[in-house]
Amino acid sequence: MLNYxxxxxxxxxxxxxxxxxxxxxxxxxxxxxxFGYSAFLVTxxxxxxxxxxxxxxxxxxxxxxxxHYTKHDYYKDDPVAAYCRKTANPFEWREAPYAKEKDLKAAxxxxxxxxxxxxxxxxxxxxxxxGFHACVTMAGQKPDLDPDAKRSIHVISMFxxxxxxxxxxETVRKKAIxxxxxxxxxxxxxMGKSSWDISLILGIAKSSVDTLTARATAKxxxxxxxxxxxxxxxxxxxxx
Length: 240
Hints:
- This protein is α+β, with helices and mostly antiparallel strands and 240 residues long.
- A five-stranded antiparallel beta sheet has the order 2-1-5-4-3, with helices on one face.
- The chain is 49% helix and 12% strand.
- The longest helix has 21 residues, at 147-167.
- It has helices spanning 4-17, 21-34, 65-71, 79-84, 104-115, 147-167, 180-190, 195-202, 206-219, 225-234; strands at 39-44, 56-60, 91-92, 120-127, 133-140.
- It has two domains: 4-167, Beta-Lactamase (2-Layer Sandwich); 180-234, Orthogonal Bundle (Arc Repressor Mutant, subunit A).
- It is built from ten helices and five strands.
């Protein structure tokens, strides 16, 4: 059985030590390749009619795909990009909703992607309380879509995006902002424990765990528990 957790922790450790965006690009490409992904993109996701190209941060798409995508103005009709702008949860590309029989341009985007070797894809949204939308999206012919693999890639993608932001000059809050209890709960969340598990471990009500987790998530400028954990580790609030 593949040790997804170890691969995730090793990747997180690597990203924390990389000092260049080129290094992040190379490492992320190798990590995703080990999961069966041959292409990836890290980008902000603006609302149309804005175009995608100026917002791309790392481009690991197949040769020729970016040019083809741009030439045919696919972004405004791309169902994967549209779904990314609506959800905070990671999803497989095939889960992006669109009317295949009616939305012919959206269907074209998905079909042509396969011509470039992108048969199956996975996307991790990065959303902040300010409304900022970005993502790490990836594809391949037969990637590993095991639930544990996708959970590992979720965390890896968040860390990769955070490292890119830091290397691009975005500051990370270093001053401790969480209470000891909030920090303790996020530490358990980082270990994969549910609110119910944590309530039993700490001897408090599940509702209290949920409230404290939500409070910590807001303080860390995050919108999901996973994002809160990633931001907490990046800012030194908790450690793995």
